[in-house]
Design goal:
Distance between the termini: 41 Å
Number of strands: 9
Largest sheet: 7 strands, mixed
Oligomer: single chain
CATH class: Alpha Beta
Structural class: alpha/beta
CATH architecture: 3-Layer(aba) Sandwich
Radius of gyration: 19 Å
Shape: globular
Strand content: 5-15%
Order of helices and strands: HHHEHEHEHEHEEEHEEHHH
Helix content: 40-55%
Number of helices: 11
Number of domains: 1
CATH topology: Glycerol-3-phosphate (1)-acyltransferase
Length: about 300
Amino acid sequence: MAIVGGRLPVLGAHVRANLRAAGLFTPDVHKAYFEQVGVHLANALRILKFQSRPERVSELARAQIAVDASITQLRDALAAGRGAIVAAPHVCNYVLTLVRLNQEIPITVYLRWSSDERKRELKHAWCRAAGLPVILEAPDAANPAARAAACVEALHYGAALVMTPDIAQKDSDKGVPVRLLGRKPCLPSGPASIAMLAEAPIVPVFGRLEGRRHVITVAPPIFVQSLSRAEGGRRMALHRAMQIWADGFAEFLAAFPQAWFLWADSRWTRVFGGDIRYLGELPGPSEGGSPATSSQSALETA
């Protein structure tokens, strides 16, 4: 993958086009992305290989992933006793990044439901091998109450619950529209909805590259504030929180575009290609103020 991935006619072209649409393409970034994907896939196989030797998985994580001093922001958020939603994108090598984070702060991973039994078992096998507790989304996940119940319960017990907000949603009925890299994609509403319900903070976790090592970085907590109908209500509250997360995500992508695993994802390919089914309308001034003002206000409050 590291050597030939960028030369594959379909895969290489999709990644190149998406990077260009985001304004982040260079030949070096394109090449470095596939090198990162190669490392990611190799480590996924290593974790499964060492299922009976967890010490080897731990050694791999410590060798390839570092944690900087910003981890104190997550520790402080958890010290408040309400738990925290750890909101992290799919960085390349996330298979080891979560293992390394779990060495610092015990985390629980939220896995989306899949009707493919083999896919579900593979996810479980990887989490077991990595030593990560799991909350598996219920089959009736379309029911918000069923989807949120286990997560809220875990947060009330003080858990650090990992959720990935970088999955593009098909329309605004299934997600929260945000501004991101010149587009208006819809991100999952789950992290902000559950944070609001549990009165727990969202703690953005990103990272940086130092040579071949990934360094985990933690941003300030985001608190989802209830708003009156005149201020835009629940929709604006979710938008404000997710927009702050998206702003931090955009900064991460601009600095280290090669480190994001989903440049080849079919849903993001539709976002960057302008597919209106994957783009949403942002809440306007009549719903509680402009998005930029709302995001800044929420950030200052947080």
